[in-house]
Specification:
By secondary structure, the protein is mainly α. The protein has a domain of 33 residues. Helices cover 69% and strands 0% of the residues. The protein is elongated, with a radius of gyration of 40 Å.
Amino acid sequence: MGIAPIDLQAIFSQVDKVGKAQAAQREGQALHQAMLGVQLQKKTEENIQQVNEAQNTGDGAEKVGDQKKRQGGGSHEKNKREAQEEENQVSVLRDPTLGNTIDISL
């Protein structure tokens, strides 16, 4: 089925509108990209100009030394408890020759 001359006449009258719409769409995408670039640049400049807040450094050097002294006595008791727990656990029997030899026979 071919195109009738009346159809061609209707199509040609709308071609300029279609061309303008496509051009506007392309320009819109470029404009959108440009706007995003400007926003990113502004955000980066703000971050550069902004003074960052100091991070929490924790306890000072004086307090660290004091804490080690306080924890010194507690660590000995902790080691005793761990040793007692290990003794209370069921011991696993192991073969002393296990893993000492490699069989390479075919």
